[in-house]
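Worked example 2:
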Amino acid sequence: MTRPRRSLLFMPGSNARALEKARTLPADGIILDLEDSVAPDAKAAARDQIAQAVAARGFGKREVLIRINALDSPWWVDDIAMAGKAQPDGILVPKISTVGDLDAVAGRLGTADASIRVWAMIETARAVLDADRLAAASQDPKTRLAGFVFGPNDIARETRIRMKPGRAAMIPMITHCILATRAHGLEILDGPYGDIGNIDGFAEECAQGRDLGFDGKTLIHPSHIDACNAIFTPPEAEVAEARKIIAAFEKPENASRGAIQLDGRMVERLHAEMARRTIAIADAIAAMGK
């Protein structure tokens, strides 16, 4: 099933009011967080609150992920045990660096509902270098791997690459990770934009992420949702063109052709494949009522 992932908003699991507000926000997905936004002495209480929030449902058609703590922390085993029982749509795991990390997560999930997917945060130099190996692990269904979330802030910290507007120094790494996901049929989301008040800067980074090939963006503030959704929504003209391409290839006289002329230009079967995804995303957005 194709589903839009234009905007996935982090919400702190320790904040009951935020968890309730998440049910009404226009984000495509909500990430209930146990990691960065939760203090060490609040981890257990946040874990219980998230379990209750997921059990209560009420998130509508929004995708619900739980971000657990990293595998080198003392909390992740309890986090993943809770998540397996709560049955969110997915579990987001920070600082995945090796296939062994994915295997450890799979082992802990065990016989939990098969619909629970795993998302790997790419936040270390090793993860970037081995992105193809990590993505290839998705061929083993036990890993449940659905995609990556690129984590620029932790990568910058580890590599000493400076985060500057335009992210020029990071584009090779971003492209490398995107290629790895596409080679193995996975999705990939961009990391959050930290300067909350700089809406113009946020919009520029969203547009850059879309053009680089990200499927959407993770967010840290609700004020970013509308702009993010707008930028990652296929424009009406693009959707109309996609429907025209599909209709043209479905004509009996074009059934066996690999390329056709449409409005004076050459259109190939690969364009039809791209058009089908555009239509699927647009239809999924419409089905969410957005």
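The first strand starts at residue 7 and ends at 12. The chain is about 45% helix and 15% strand.
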